[in-house]
Prior knowledge:
The chain is α/β, with parallel strands linked by helices.
Amino acid sequence: MQGESWLCPTELDRSRVVDANGRVRTIRMVGTAAIALALLIATPWLGWTFILLALSIANFVNVGRRMETSAHPERISAYGVLITLLLLATGVILSGGPRSPALPWLVLPAAMVAARFRSQVVIAAVALTVAVIAAATLGVHTAATIRDPVPVIATLALLAAVVSIVLALQAAELHHRSEAILDPLTGLLNRHALVPRFLELSLQARVTNQPVCVMLCDVDNFKAINDDHGHDRGDAVLRDLAYTLRKHLRSFELVYRLGGEEFLVVLPGLDLAGGVEVGERLRAAVEQAQPSGIPITISLGVSAAIGVHVDYESMFKAADTALYEAKRAGRNRAVAARLEPGEDGSAGPAGQLAPIEAAIGV
Ligand code: GH3
Ligand code: MG
Ligand code: MG
């Protein structure tokens, strides 16, 4: 949306940075408080360090405020980390270089990067940290560093260890999150992913007065397929069916597996007539594809709404009723929901936005 950047090539990368920034806010305050306490205790020996601390706190406050309004929050975050690194390096240089008690703190900015950014950015941050450590010790206090390089070596080892641990935790967190929104059998999004997406779409529809179409798909007589071919083959049919549905939709038209052999397709920008057309196309595609070599058919119930009328609960109910009608009429067909005012793209009375979390049942 805001354009590409090396720091965050995708919108997902960018939302990860913003999300991580929000979640580490408290932890960062605890970390800053710990460092402030250490400096307070060390004041009789290092009185001037409070200037650096004050600058650091000002930096954090500035970053937090600007990230909320910037079109490129990842850049603000990266600048903030860079400023922290430079302030720490200044403190290290002024307090003894390789003998500075603050030397290990130079590891912290790279750990902050590892908690937010993709691996290429983390590699760059580690390389920069190594260069800054070398400059603050070997560069400025050359003789002292050569005489006793052990603190520098220990700090470099700490850098590798801390960044590795943060990266491992980050990978585990991402894996856990993708499992929470992806259906393991088909790889499609599950109903948990539907909640934020539909909320976003309904808010967008309010602003733009665009229609949104939802389509409920259910495999016909699927129980018989399990009974005749076995449950594993039934699973293979569902996997292939998911692939067929995905293949015949555009990238922004999303398919969710609601459970069992029931899928929901969300079509932003389409009214009821457009939705029925897509439904018919999917129906024909599945019939022709014979997922996992078994001839199957699907029935679809299609509903649509526009602007303020886009809300999950009423649209799902309408699509479900239409699906029931498709089944009753003989299956293997797409049926449009009966229209209420405002549900097909025409203007109707202003509606309320329903609490979709409750409606979806999460
Ligand atoms: P209808 O045309 O009315 O939809 O008939 P149906 O047989 O498809 O409907 P019904 O709801 O009676 O059966 C759905 C079946 O789907 C029952 C259940 O065993 C099967 N099923 C649900 N989840 C899975 C799954 O993950 N894998 C497999 N293989 N089968 C599943
Ligand atoms: Mg079924
Ligand atoms: Mg069913």
